[in-house]
Specification:
alpha+beta, 3-stranded antiparallel β-sheet, about 35% helix, disordered C terminus
Length: about 150
């Protein structure tokens, strides 16, 4: 599925302290990931003042999330595989999530990948180098005070 397996491998490398974080962001941008759909919108979760789009590298990872949620996915969508329950999901390129959907949310937002896998999860926070600068929370702190040399 569009580089998602490579993304999972790069996440494992970073969690082991290997690889370049910029390469990991590049893999997310290239990968096709699965995002559950809930009530017509993408599944998100709020944590630490950030809205997180929940994305998965494959149907097995989505199934683990569905099982952890303990919820039936409804009638729509394809079966997630392991649970046998149907969850509706969208298959989206990571770049679209970061460049279009995150800014459209209108709040600080990032992408959380494979959140049901404690040893394989990775968060891509709303900071420069990951999301567009105009919605990055670290760029918003650079206002008039930054121009005066004091922060």
């Amino acid at each position: 599925m569009g580089g998602a397996t490579v993304l999972a491998e790069r996440i494992a490398e970073r969690r082991a302290g290997l690889g370049d974080p910029r390469d990991l962001v590049g893999e997310l941008r290239r990968a096709l990931v699965l995002v559950p759909v809930d009530s017509g919108g993408l599944w998100t979760a709020e944590f630490g003042g950030v809205r997180w789009i929940c994305a998965f590298t494959d149907e097995a990872a989505l199934a683990r999330f569905a099982r952890a949620r303990g919820a039936a996915g409804g009638d729509a969508g394809r079966e997630t595989g392991e649970t046998g329950e149907a969850w509706e999901f969208a298959e989206l390129r990571g770049a679209r999530l970061l460049d279009e959907i995150v800014p459209a949310l209108g709040v600080p937002a990032g992408v959380a990948v494979d959140i049901a896998d404690p040893d394989g999860a990775m968060a891509f926070p709303p900071v420069r180098g990951i999301v567009p600068d105009d919605v990055a929370i670290d760029a918003q702190s650079e206002g008039p005070a930054a121009e005066g040399g004091v922060r």
